[in-house]
Structure formats: C-alpha cells, structure tokens
From TrEMBL:
<feature type="transmembrane region" description="Helical">
    <location>
        <begin position="296"/>
        <end position="320"/>
    </location>
</feature>
<keyword id="KW-1133">Transmembrane helix</keyword>
<feature type="transmembrane region" description="Helical">
    <location>
        <begin position="374"/>
        <end position="398"/>
    </location>
</feature>
<feature type="domain" description="Amino acid permease/ SLC12A">
    <location>
        <begin position="31"/>
        <end position="438"/>
    </location>
</feature>
<feature type="transmembrane region" description="Helical">
    <location>
        <begin position="200"/>
        <end position="223"/>
    </location>
</feature>
<keyword id="KW-0812">Transmembrane</keyword>
<feature type="transmembrane region" description="Helical">
    <location>
        <begin position="235"/>
        <end position="256"/>
    </location>
</feature>
<keyword id="KW-0472">Membrane</keyword>
<protein>
    <submittedName>
        <fullName>APC family permease</fullName>
    </submittedName>
</protein>
<feature type="region of interest" description="Disordered">
    <location>
        <begin position="473"/>
        <end position="497"/>
    </location>
</feature>
<feature type="transmembrane region" description="Helical">
    <location>
        <begin position="410"/>
        <end position="430"/>
    </location>
</feature>
<feature type="transmembrane region" description="Helical">
    <location>
        <begin position="90"/>
        <end position="112"/>
    </location>
</feature>
<dbReference type="GO" id="GO:0016020">
    <property type="term" value="C:membrane"/>
</dbReference>
<dbReference type="InterPro" id="IPR050367">
    <property type="entry name" value="APC_superfamily"/>
</dbReference>
<feature type="transmembrane region" description="Helical">
    <location>
        <begin position="341"/>
        <end position="362"/>
    </location>
</feature>
<dbReference type="GO" id="GO:0055085">
    <property type="term" value="P:transmembrane transport"/>
</dbReference>
<dbReference type="InterPro" id="IPR004841">
    <property type="entry name" value="AA-permease/SLC12A_dom"/>
</dbReference>
Amino acid sequence: MTAADRRLKRDALGVLGILFLVLSAQAPLTGIAGAVPLSVALGNGSGVPAAYVAAGAVVLLFSVGFVAMSRHVVDPGAFYTYIGRGLGRTAGTGAAAVALFAYCTIQAAMYGLYGATVAQLLDLHAGIDAPWWLWALLTMALVQFLGVAGIDTGARVLAVFVVAETSILLVFALVTLVRGGGPEGLGVAAAFSPRTALDGAPGVALMFAVASMFGFEATAVYGEEARAPERTVPRATYLSITLITAFFALTSWMVISAHGASHATDDAGRALENGDSSAFVFQPVTDRLGGWAGDLLPVLLATSLFAGILAFHNSANRYLFSLSRERRLPHALCALNRRGAPWAAGVVQTAIAVLLVVPFALTGRDPVVTLFSWFSGVAVLAIMLLYLLTSVSVVVFFRRNRLDRRLWNTAVAPALGALGIAGAIWLVLANLTTLIGGDRTTATWLALTIPTVWLLGAAAYLARPAGAYPRTMAPAPETPDAAVTSPTPETSEKDPP
C-alpha cells in the first residue's frame, strides 16, 4: 500500500463521537474554573456571560464557511488543507506548521496544569509526594496507548470524562437558576445588558471567551473517520459551538449570580490574590451541592485536563499523518496499525510533548505560571491566525470554483467571521501579557514564534527538491454535494496565482 492509498478507519465516528472529542478538547471545567475568574476580575465583571455569547456568535459566523468547505474537502489536515486549497500550497504548508505548533503547545500547557493538579491531589489524599513532571510523563505513556487503541476507543473514554465534568456544573447551574439565583437574584441585566457587557475591560473578557472555544475545529479533522462526513461534520460543528456557548454563558452567569453581581469582581480578585482562582467557581458549587462536590471538583479538574490532552494528541497526530501521506513529512509517519490508528504519528507527537515539557522540569520552573500560561497563550494566538486564514481561503476557494453559490455561506458569513476573528487577534495581542501571566518581553517573544513557525513551514515547502512532494490533492468535485477526500493519487492541482 502506498502512502497515498492509506486511509484512517472509516465509519468509526458519528455525530456524538465527534462531539465528545471536540468538547473534551475544550475542557469545559478547566475553562470555567480557569478563565471565568480571570475574566470577571480583569475584564468586564458581571458582564462576562455576554462576552461568551458574543464569542459564540463570531465563531458561529466563521463556522458557516468552515462547514461549507468541509462538504467538498475531507482530510484530517483540515486547516492546512483548506488554506492550501484557497491560498496555495505554500500558505497551506506554513499553516500546517502553525497548526501542529498550536496543538502541541496547548497539549504541553495542559500537561503543566495537569501535573501540578495531580501532584497536589495525591499529596493531599494519598500522602504521595512526587514532582509534577513524573505524573505528566506517566500520563504521556497512557495517552500514547489510548491513541493507538483507535479513535473509537478514545471517544468512549473521553465521553465518560466530558459527561462527568459537565454534569456537576450543569446541576449547579440549574439548581441556582431554579432557586432564583444568589443574594441579588438572577441578575439578568447585570449579565447581559449592553452597559455591563461594555463595562471595565470587555476586550479581556472577549479574549478569554474566544479562547474557551478553542478546539471546535477538530470536527473536520475527524471527517475521514466519520460516517457520512458531508452530514456528520456540519452537524457536529454547529452542535458543538451551540452547546459550548450555551454552557459557558449559563454557567458563568450562575457563578456570578451566586456571588452577587455587585460582589463578583471583588470576590474574583480575592481568589486571584490568594493564588487559587478556581475557588471563585468551586466555592459556590460546594455551597449549593454540598461538601462532596468540593471534594470531587479537583478530581474532575484533573480528568478534564486529561480529556483535553488526549483530544489534542489525536488532533496533532492526524495532522502529522496527513502531512506524511502527502509526502511533506517522512512517509513512514502515515503507518497505520490494525485498528486504523496512525501509530507512528502518535509516537512522534508524544516525543514532541516530552521535548516541550522536560525543559521546564529540568529548570525547576513552576508548571502553572510558566508552562501552562505561556503555551496556552501562544496556542490561542496561533489558532486565531488559522481561523483568519481559513475564512479568507473559503471566500477565495468558492469564488474560484463556484461549487456552492450560496452567497451567505461562501462569502458574507466567512467575511464577517474574518472581521470578528481579526478583532479577536488584536485583543489577544493587546492583552497577551495578561493572558500568559508574564512580562511584555516574554509576550513579545512568544508572539514572534508564530510567524516564525509559519515562515519555516512555507520555506521548507519552497525549498523542496523537484518532485519531492507529489501534488496529490484532488481538485474540487463538479457537484456541490460531493465530498473529496484528499489526497487522491490520480489527480493534481496547481497552486493559485
């Protein structure tokens, strides 16, 4: 079997399977416990729920064009394939480098917070005093095992963790809602009125809200393994964005309501000063559900992080697989095991995780203050750039091929999404120092890594020897409802001018 003939396991995932993979990458409990206290304290206070609604609207606009593209191009390379089809292979290969960089850095960031969380839990409850990096390395081995076990096995494991972490927060939110909120009532106006939404520093809140959406694009990454991807991927994409927006808006609203809208900002600030920002979320949950919830939440935070780590491992190794299948990386990386899983790419992805995490362990850095904060900030910025390039690529692709003549889906919505994403990028850059919890110099160097990675990827493609990368990407189909699985060895496509 040639590299171009290799395919991931077909019909392995339905809408729910893809949905759990996406939701686990977004790590709902991690997002609520980590982002909401910062958004309330440093952003627009009680108006944080409105920021989630605004971010969901921007991402939903982006997804319209993203979904339109997914009906015609099915490939585990998703972002870079889409960008390559619209803006050319050079831009696409640069985007592939950025996508790998984003997924690997966000996974490494989560290893930092995960290792610190597990070390604290085991020290407190089992008396086991071991460094954070030991648990991170052991978990890398477990993630590698689950990765080669097949995507359907991984989806089942992730489903358990996602249901557990979202259930306790949803129960808290519904209990608080039914009881009429906290000491000041539900505070609908305080949460969603234009005045409070624009109060304080709304850009900071919007930045964290957009960051919480990180991972929904994985719906297209699993298209080749989905049943009827032309239907499954769009449904999973729209469903994941709608659910995660509603979840974050409702849960953050109820957390703020539980504190009281007029006290929420001060309470969040005190939690940050005490070095345990999660207490801003965990305390009201414990107050309403009982002490058992307070004991369970730290455990669920660890499983939430594990679920995210596994999800990003699966996304990253599929990028490596796709690049290898197109001969842009050594073709040995597209080797599949009997379960149809890209085991060789998974080994390389795990090795990258080790290389990213170990230097922080050797230098004795705080895994939360440095590894988690730095890498999560740069990953958010990198993925935002990919969203922007993909939106532009969608417009160019459909203007050139005329496969879909729906103006809203192929031009208006992607253009509006691009404008919203460009604004989000500006906000992330303006507040990157806050996002990474570091200084301006560190923030500048981290931001510069992204264009550097893109240029290195593009340069590697331009410097290739003649015939090194066969042009395997298929041209678009003639019918709007048909989907193309890239690559197909029989056809070729030239870069656009």
